[in-house]
Amino acid sequence: MELKFINQPPSIINRFVAELRDINVQTDSMRFRRNMERIGEVFAYEISKSLSYKQKEVRTPLGFSNEWMPNDKIVLASILRAGIPFHNGLLNYFDDAENAFVSAYRKYTEEGEFEIRVEYISSPDLTDKILILADPMLATGSSMELSYNALLTNGKPKHIHIVSIIAGQAGVEYIEDKLKYEPVTLWLAALDEELNAKSYIVPGLGDAGDLAYGAKL
Question: Taking the complete model, does pTM exceed 0.85, yes or no?
Answer without folding.
Answer: yes
